[in-house]
Structure formats: structure tokens, C-alpha cells
Amino acid sequence: MSTINSGITQDLNTIANGTNSTASSVIENPDGVLGKDSFMKLLLVELQYQDPTEPMDSEKILTQTSQLASLESATNTNKTMEKLASRLDSNGDLQALSAIGKMASLGSNAITLQEKGNAQFEIYFENEIKSGELIITDVNGEKVRTISLDEQVGESGVLAFEWDGTDNNGEKLDAGYYSVTSEYLDANDEQQATQFGIYPVESVRYQDGEAFIKLGSSYVPMNYILEFF
After folding, report:
1. Which of 21, 18, 47, 23 is nearest to 34 (CA)?
2. Domain architecture of the chain: domains with CATH
């Protein structure tokens, strides 16, 4: 019996430690992780060294076989989830790249006016400006300031602006959110309209695995964008 115990102890340790003493070189498993193959080997060793006069209970064998099936199922599920996560990441990358050349909306035309300092922002003009104005409204939709586009005549694309936070009477307005839109005539004397928060997608940059979309002169996380069109 001591020989049997010694044999099973040696074989179990061999399997648990991931070593193969019969091979010309020793293969080690430093993490001591038991996979389904190792689990099956353990079961076979138990059967090999069981006492013939007291064979292993059939219920115990069924229980261990069930555990083996559960282990294999969990392993397959983990592999499937890893593949799914990889595909989702790949699809996200493709979606970001396919957005180049499209228009993107942040879902809001509101800028932030700080208590001190000016508000700086950019607006995209698809057509060349002949005349027009910026229209700034408060949270109640009341027009508080109009700014002429005389300095931008002949220009188009993403244009930068700076607002000092005053209304049409020169009074300093409270800090908060203000909406910015624009109405203008293009070079063909056709009426056009645009607003803050809508830009063409110029490029995509990846940082730490996350996609950033270039809108105007800034890169914003892809999840900031409400719509591509």
C-alpha cells in the first residue's frame, strides 16, 4: 500500500506542477494552473491507483466528470468572450476610420462662458462667406449678441472666433452656457446656416487603444460624438 501511495503522490504532484518526468527535458508550470487536460489526468491517476478492494464510488466519478465538463465549458466560454471582445474592438476601429470624410455632431451648439476671460470656439462654414453674422443666445433662447462676419468674408472651412462675453449693449453677461449659430450668404448669394458643434471628420488618432476624432483643431474621444452623417 505504501508503494501505491507513493506512486499516486508522485503522479499527482507531477500533474499539478505541470512537469513530465519521463520526458528528456522537464516542462514546468510555474503558475500551477490546472486545465481540463490536467484535470482528466488527475482523474485517470485516481482510477489507476484506487484500491481494488474499495473501488472509487461511481457517484464520485460522475461528480468529477461533471466538474471536468464544467471546467471545459467555462474555458470555451472564456475563449469565446475574448474573441468577441477582440472583434468589438476591431469593429470600433473600423467605425472610427470609416467616419473620415463624414460630418460629426457633438449634439449641442452650446459653448461655455467662464466668469473671467473670453470664450473661444470654432465653427465650420461649408461655403465661402459673402456676408452674415454669428448669433449668440442664452439658455432661454433669447438673442444676447450678434457678431458680424465681415472679417471672414471670402473664407470657408473651420474658422476660429473669440467672444468677450458681452451683450449687444457692451454689458458683461453671467458665466454659463450660450448657444452659437450663424446665418450667412455664400458666394452665390444663397442663404446658408451653420452652428457650433458640427464639423467634418478630418482624421483619427489612437491613444492607449482609444480612438480620438479630429474635429476642427481638436481631437475628441469618439464617445463624445452623438452622430456621424
Report:
1. 18
2. 2-97 (no CATH), 103-228 (2.60.40.4070)
